[in-house]
Write a structure and sequence with these properties.
Layout: H1 8-14, H2 27-43, H3 57-69, H4 72-85, H5 92-110
Helix pairs in contact: 2-3
Amino acid sequence: MTRARLTDEEWEFVEPFLPIGRFGPYPERLREQFEGVIWRFRTGGRWREMPERFGPWQTVYNRFRRWRDGGVFQALLETRARRDVAGARVGAETLTAIEEAAARKKERMRDGENTRDARFPTTP
């Protein structure tokens, strides 16, 4: 089974981004509903196949649509990217790839090669 539950640390990061209206969602169900969205995209299952532990699938789907349309997921990604760029959470593989790319560019410059990527021409 694919992990759909958030760790407490992950939830602390996500929770402030989720709006709570006057009439719901109730804060105690918010985490389960967000985990339902995670379940949907990690498993590739249909909304109607969602396990009951996340709440009614229609409710989770409606929350997903509101969060998507309200820019919640975009804000989460942008904030995560800023943290990664600031050095708070860059994974070892990512850091290695960045270092290798920088080293290759330095080698090409030293050897007098054109450092521009031919796949992305600068002229229209």
